[in-house]
Amino acid sequence: MRKLIYGMNLTLDGYIAAPGDDISWSAPSDELFQFWSDQLQATDLTLYGRKLWHTMSSYWPTGDQQPNATPAEIEFARRWRDMSKVVFSSTIDKVDWNTRLVTGDAVAEITRLKAEDGGPMDIGGATLAGAAMRAGLIDEYVLATAPVLVGGGTPFFTALDNWVNLNMVETRTLPCGVTLTRYETRR
């Protein structure tokens, strides 16, 4: 059975985007970028909601060809392009870069993917992750908490029907001030 991991950058007050989908507060440092690149390398499959897919696919397919791309960005772009991805959306009809589109029941498909043999899966996008959270499918939460308050926007956590008990697995602070924390779901 695969492990499902939900992780993103978020503000101290719990938002992955400020109002208007503004993520300018989250300018990553080299250390934070390397952390996410290492996470990507350890992942077999990434699951995206439509909005995060549009954000990622608008840059990373050619991120390694940008004039100011760092060696870490070049490596990340290549990893991202080559890895298997699934996008869940009922409003788009085409995806590229080693990606499969699912237009049906996301929770049923995520449940099916979790039951397969294979390495860890990442899930990204607040709406998609929220559905997986409510269904009890997320095994690990990875929070990269930036020392900024934005007062509103898109929350990292969704409203839940039941409590989710967690065990802290790791916490550390990067030189840029971002605190990384990992929690496993207590089953």
Automatic annotation (TrEMBL):
Residues 2-179 form the Bacterial bifunctional deaminase-reductase C-terminal domain. Transmembrane segments: none annotated. This is Dihydrofolate reductase family protein. Coiled coil: none annotated. InterPro entries: DHFR-like_dom_sf, RibDG_C, Riboflavin_Biosynth_HTPR. Signal peptide: none annotated. Pfam families: RibD_C.
